[in-house]
Amino acid sequence: MLQLITILNRCHRFPGFVYQTARFSSDHKSIEIAVRPRKGSKAVCSRCHQPAPGYDQLAERRFEFIPFWGFLVFLLYSMRRVDCRHCQAVVVEEVPWADGKRTLTKAYMLFLARWARRLSWKETAEAFRTSWDKVFDAVEHVVTWGLQHRVLGQIDAIGVDEIQYAKGHKYLTLVYQIDLGVTRLLWVGKERTIESFQGFFTAMGKDVISKIVFVCSDMWEPYLKLIRENCSEALHILDRFHIVANMNKALDNVRAEETSRMKREGRAPVLKKSRWLLLRRSENLGAEQHFRLRDLLRYNLKTVRAYLLKEAFQQLWEYSSPAWAGKFLDEWCRQTMRSRIEPMKKIARSLRQHRELILNYFRAQKLLSSGVVEGLNNKAKVTMRKSYGFRTYRVLELALYHSLGKLPEPDSTHDFF
Ligand SMILES: [Zn+2]
Q: Residue range 197-213: average pLDDT?
């Protein structure tokens, strides 16, 4: 008869320890497996990771293992303390199946963390009859290990983005690697400040930073300054995604302002429910929406003129020569400056001011996977939604690294699928 202990020895075996007995708990809802040290094997100090002479033994602890066939599974073990000469202290031993004070075994944490990438954290907790906090623990363990063991290597291109994570201007700064072959989240920073963004350069180290060739970012002046200071050799690019996003924001301001003005003046609410019609690219509209848009465009409104300017601007991205793109850009800015629509004029002024950085987009176009920052930004938003429950900075940081960081995973004795 195949016994539980035989199976455990096959998939979760550690040389210094033996599985002694397996039995049901008194309520028959879980299985408890007693573990003891193998005779003659020395405990390992958890501080210096060296074997050390024993001191005493603590009360039995329960380590949660991967549940199976509807039973929770626990390993029961009394931790030894060692009298470590090297550390000159009495220290709790280190056991290979657990990580410090965490109550889940490493195998179970890796198992839960993998599911937490596919399901929301809440769903993961429910599916395996555990708590949200334990899923958090599991992801934290796996991400911490991954960050300690990841290899940065040569990074050619980075993209900087920010994302709002809570009401009241709470932003995260995200830095992605956007090389043609590798795209991943490199760094998450709290808030959108110079100090937080400087943290990225410090964390990566001069060696990695100095070899960066392209930097894509928004036009936010403090970012631009830091990038110039830290990556003086790199070509700085204002990428399409951020420019389009700013333009949409300006158009939306024009629409909102005009809508309320028309309401005040008691005019027909022709702009009602036009927001998505105007912000979406026209080729992404359905037949019915096309019809409504065409109807809307007949009106002589500021919003309509701003929309037409925005649509005309799309042609910029068709150019492959920086010189021709530059001519187009100048002409568009000239027209827009005469439009008497302040939010659009503001965009034109800023585009003029950053003309060279925009043209860098065309200079680097063939070397970057374009649209990649936008894609990663969308994934980051989905991740934030899936980890919800407790939308604190730490939770989001972990969730983002976990799903976008392409981090290495801790070693496992077995593939527990
Ligand atoms: Zn020690």
A: 90
* Contact criterion met (CB below 8 Å) for 172 and 185: no
Per-residue pLDDT at 404: 95
Percentages of the chain per state (helix, strand, coil), in multiples of 5: 50, 20, 30
Quote the ligand 1 centre to 365 CA distance (angstroms). 54
Query: Could you tell me the distance, in angstroms and rounded to a whole number, from the CA of residue 278 to the centre of ligand 1?
Result: 65
**291 Cα to the center of ligand 1, angstroms:** 75
pTM: 0.83
Judging by DSSP bridges, how do beta strands 157-166 and 183-190 pair with one another?
unpaired
**Residue 213 is which amino acid?**
V
Helix residue ranges per DSSP H, 73-188: 106-118, 121-127, 132-149
Alpha carbon of 78 to ligand 1 centroid (Å): 19
Q: Which of 5-14, 84-93, 181-190, 216-225 has the lowest mean pLDDT?
A: 216-225
Q: What is residue 33's three-state secondary structure?
A: strand
Instruction: Show Cβ contacts of residue 324 under 8 Å, excluding neighbours closer than 6 positions.
Output: none
User: Whole-angstrom Cα distance, residue 246 to residue 227?
Assistant: 20
What is the spatial distance between Cα 309 and Cα 336, in angstroms, rounded to a whole number?
Answer: 7
